[in-house]
Design brief:
mainly alpha, two-stranded antiparallel sheet, 2 strands, elongated
Length: about 210
């Protein structure tokens, strides 16, 4: 069982302010997405063998933005409800959840670089499985504080379950090796970080 650990928990002011609670995960998520590179992510996604029910790549941006906003609002609801409670057990659960929330957010932000930039499907699958477990426990903890907060986390938890399926199935279909999906380009950009292209990449339409 995780307890409240102030040193690794987001500041109270972020949880207490609805705008900050929502904008922090949304901003961090967008920042990580752009640092990995939308074009790189799309190319990798389209190159890999994919299981049934895979969504088109253009779905992920709006979906994750909505889920980050929902998780931020869940954090705000749980914090404001729990800290206003006169029940010490509720207050303890609220703060315990704040630490879990911070941990899951950190885990969430690591997954995309691990999967798309480093191309480590085994580690990424283990990572998203751990993230799903932590988020499930967080949802349970905050459900005892505020039902609305738990409801806001439910779509996120469901999406993580789906992401776990995609990660496991994609890894399996590609023999748990994404490195062979790239080949050296004849481009003159050698050494610039742009000297690779994907072996199954379809020619660009003009």
């Amino acid at each position: 069982m995780t307890t409240y650990i102030p040193s690794i928990t987001l500041p109270d002011v972020i949880f207490a302010n609805p705008a900050a609670a929502i904008l922090v995960p949304v901003g961090l998520g967008l920042g990580v997405g752009y640092s990995v590179g939308p074009k790189r992510t799309r190319q990798t996604y389209l190159t890999l063998k994919q299981p049934p029910f895979r969504p088109p790549p253009q779905v992920f941006g709006p979906a994750w933005t909505s889920l980050y906003a929902l998780m931020g609002y869940a954090a705000y609801r749980a914090w404001t409800t729990g800290t206003a409670s006169l029940n010490p057990n509720t207050l303890q659960l609220t703060k315990q959840g704040a630490t879990l929330y911070t941990i899951q957010l950190g885990l969430n932000l690591i997954w995309m670089p691990l999967f798309f930039r480093l191309k480590r499907p085994v580690e990424a699958t283990a990572h998203v499985t751990l993230l799903t477990g932590v988020t499930g426990y967080l949802t349970y903890v905050w459900s005892q504080v505020d039902t609305g907060a738990a409801c806001c986390l439910a779509p996120y938890l469901g999406w993580l379950g789906f992401a776990t399926y995609l990660s496991v199935a994609t890894g399996y279909l590609n023999d748990w090796n994404f490195a062979d999906k790239e080949q050296n380009s004849t481009s003159s950009n050698t050494g610039s970080g742009m000297d690779k292209e994907y072996v199954n990449k379809a020619p660009e339409q003009k």
